[in-house]
Amino acid sequence: MTLPRGIVVFAALLRTASAAALEIPPDPSLNESVLDLPTPAGRLRTTLFVPGGKGPFPLVVINHGKPEGDAATQPRFRPLAAVGFFLARGYLVAVPMRGGFAGSEGVYRAASCDSAEYGKRQAADVEAALAVLARRADVDRSRILVVGVSSGGWASLALGARGVVGIRGVIDFAGGVRLHGCPSWQADLADAAGTFGGRSRVPSLWLYGSNDSLFPEPVWRAMFGRYRQAGGRAVLVSYGVFERDAHTLFTTRSGLDVWSEPVESFLRGLGLPASVTLPRFVPPPAMPLPGATSFAALSDWRAVPFLAGPGRQGYRLFLGKPSPRAFALAADGAWGAAWQGDDPAARALATCRRTSRAVCSLYAVDDTVVWSAPRR
């Protein structure tokens, strides 16, 4: 299916029974809250981030991707770099979890070999959430932007073809759906893009990289070409190679440095706010990372210091997770791990510090051990 772009954090102490997922509490500094929006298809778990003041604010709806495995176990999507970008420009940010995901009611239905139908089903959930959000007094229903990544980008393109009043534009980050077991999924994806383009009346911005792990360049170029040929108003930003995987651009702090300028230009063209008016929300730079050491091999979980059973179990779990990722620990046995999402090194350290009275340090980042034994 599509790439997991949600934040997953695990932590434990020596005395804990096992590693467990931590539900991240709302962040007051971002005016974050979690609501269950009532829709005809069931309640949809939705995270809101609200700028200061009474509004009404322009609304940006951010649509998540699909991780491998059970959709219900996916945590709330919190793309903090993007959230900060839009908050700083005065937008109210809503991140709805579609049916069957992360506390939302309903059952997630996997894609068949019909990517257009899949996009329409996912877009229906977003439209239902948007209908509830548009009734809020602090939302300017005439200024709505729809943004999505991976399968959420695909849902956003499908929503742009539904003629929803108030949507000014769509931004698609590496959108698409990978149809497993379907030999002609690439052609089907291009055909579906043509269907959406023929029905869409709103401008769209497409951002794709050349080292995308899910959608190779010929696939997304064919999609974009068919969308435009069918009459869709779209601009493509082909930004080349991005780190290890271009599919992670939207969910990483370093990706913001790539996409902020073309997105600002797109917003200006739509007559939407594009300049920073609330600098307190501007995301900080990603923390600098230490260099590799020769302390131990990354895979040698027995060599990791300080940790007992649960911590070692957590480290072995960490080894199976995709990059970007980080693992932190402390001398009292506390530890934290984070992968994907925004600045995993900072998040791993923050998780470790929640349960530690000692100093937390990074042990591993991506595929490298960065920890050194303290000098005596």
From TrEMBL:
<protein>
    <recommendedName>
        <fullName>Xaa-Pro dipeptidyl-peptidase-like domain-containing protein</fullName>
    </recommendedName>
</protein>
<keyword id="KW-0378">Hydrolase</keyword>
<dbReference type="GO" id="GO:0052689">
    <property type="term" value="F:carboxylic ester hydrolase activity"/>
</dbReference>
<dbReference type="InterPro" id="IPR029058">
    <property type="entry name" value="AB_hydrolase_fold"/>
</dbReference>
<dbReference type="InterPro" id="IPR000383">
    <property type="entry name" value="Xaa-Pro-like_dom"/>
</dbReference>
<feature type="signal peptide">
    <location>
        <begin position="1"/>
        <end position="21"/>
    </location>
</feature>
<dbReference type="Pfam" id="PF02129">
    <property type="entry name" value="Peptidase_S15"/>
</dbReference>
<feature type="domain" description="Xaa-Pro dipeptidyl-peptidase-like">
    <location>
        <begin position="43"/>
        <end position="176"/>
    </location>
</feature>
<dbReference type="InterPro" id="IPR050261">
    <property type="entry name" value="FrsA_esterase"/>
</dbReference>
<keyword id="KW-0732">Signal</keyword>
